[in-house]
Design a protein that fits this description.
single chain, 122 residues, alpha+beta, Arc Repressor Mutant, subunit A, 3-stranded antiparallel β-sheet, two-stranded antiparallel ribbon, 7 helices, 50% helix
Length: 122
């Protein structure tokens, strides 16, 4: 049972419960997608960008920085020309994979054809 007086925080912000903190840290259109794309191992920046239709360079860079700051993503820079940068989930990030797998499974209920079949059987 959790302590009702517990406080949770990150970067000077406090939250009354762990769930609110988690949602605040992972909110945003692209963070969960980036984590999902990294679940199978390291990816180069360009490979990651190509795998997420609609994301801009600016948004990908910003979201990766934030995920790195939280400790979910590790950035590797190789001293070669041209520069080579790879991203990978940390142990903390790996802990999110089963949660995202459950969300993916739940989201399958909304597959367009299946959803139409469910609604038409009412």
């Amino acid at each position: 049972m959790s302590d009702p007086n517990a406080q949770y925080g990150f970067n000077g912000k406090t939250f009354p419960c762990a769930t609110e903190l988690s949602i605040a840290l992972l909110s945003g259109r692209w963070k969960m997608t980036i984590i999902w794309k990294l679940k199978n191992g390291k990816k180069r920046y360009g490979e990651l960008k190509a795998s997420i239709p609609g994301i801009t360079h600016k948004m990908l860079a910003q979201q990766l920085r934030e995920l790195e700051e939280i400790g979910i993503v590790q950035r590797y820079v190789y001293p070669v020309v041209p520069p080579k940068v790879e991203y990978e989930l940390t142990g903390l990030g790996d802990g999110l994979v089963p949660i995202l797998e459950h969300l993916n499974e739940w989201g399958e209920h909304f597959r367009l054809q299946e959803r139409e079949d469910i609604l038409s059987n009412r």
